[in-house]
Amino acid sequence: MAAGFMFATGIENSYPTIKNGTHRVDEMEKCGHYTHWKRDFECVTELGIQFLRYGPPIHRTWLAPGRYDWEFADQTFAELKRLKIMPIVDLCHFGVPDWIGNFQNGDFPALFGTYARDFAARFPWVQLYTPVNEMFICATFSGRNGWWNEQGTTDRTFVTALKHLVKANVLAMRAILEVRPDALFIQSESSEYFHASSPAAIGLAETYNQQRFLTLDLNYGHRVNSDMYEFLMDNGMTRDEYHFFLGQGLRRHCIMGTDYYFTNEHRVYADGRVTASGEIFGYDEITRQYHDRYQLPVMHTETNLWEGPTGQEAVDWLWKEWANVLRIRNVGIPILGFTWYSLTDQVDWDSALREDNGTVNPLGLYDLDRNIRKVGECYRTLIQDWSSVLPAQSHCLVLPLDMPDGEEEPDTAERLRRHAVRNLDRGGIARRGPGPSRAPGPPGGW
């Protein structure tokens, strides 16, 4: 079937390590998902949402090369299928199993490709994937800021993490396509911008504004400029590694997911300091920059805002982001979906998961008792109002989605046989028509 607009949310499933790799921060555990997963999925259906960013906890599932504990994944994915919720499967979210170590391990990409293939073979009804979540943020926090996993603080550890994360993503896409040729990949990547605070900071800001594209450049085979090529070569990437990324040809299977938060824009100072600038350009302008570079269909894959004293702060942010989505659509950029992330409140993101304080962050559509928040009610109304409008608009793209049918899964051999006989022409994203028509703009009161 052809998909209409994809309204989504997600189950927060970050699991990096801190304290020199000795302590795992597991958001599924902190937020109660292991206990309340059935209720969480009910909440998704109560909101009228059909798409859920979701993935199994890699550190609990992937025990060793070729050895898995699928029990929790089997239970949860069977329930998603029964409820006819389409998962956008997030296979690696800021961490790896203890036996791999961290993102400096050069064996990780090939091993992860096998993990992705084995997951796809076990759940062949799954069509949408984000193999590696926010590769740029993961490389930055793990390899440059010294916060997570390897806690690296140099350009070399940053480039090493970055090239391994992107190669893992590419090998996972290839492996999944061997099992599911019509799979589609929604890269959830942080969309960033760095503002110079003075003329003396312009050069450094421009460097950071080139580096923000590195993960997607490599993932999509987009040639970097000469400055970035020298940066990569000077910090451990080889010519052969660089050319590996140029020759993959996977773009036709991809949707560019862009994440945007109030903290995604930065102020750069002449002395090298970087601080949060707050929203200057906004999602609209920064997404245009990314689309201009890659010319791929877009999905807004993450946003949220801390609920303030009245709850109106988060509601206002939801409407602002939605107005940005409509603006992007109205100027002809094919934007296919929107996500408030995550379903429930999160824990300890106020310290970027660097500290294990148990601080609840009121960012969800529901609180941790699974009571709906004001922004959740607003999102439910937004979905009801706009679902009947947006699919009627003429997209320049058609997503050939095979939505879950709610039936029980056949045995493994039969599952694989059914998916092997699919029409391979369904792979990729089909284009139609001369171009997008204009969706109605937001009312003036927003």
Automatic annotation (TrEMBL):
Region (Disordered): 421-446
Provenance organism: Rubellimicrobium aerolatum
Signal peptide boundaries: none
InterPro entries xrefs: GH, Glyco_hydro_1
Pfam families recorded: Glyco_hydro_1
Superkingdom: Bacteria
Pro residues composition-biased segments: 437-446
Name of the protein described by the UniProt record: Family 1 glycosylhydrolase
Transmembrane segments annotated in the record for this chain: none
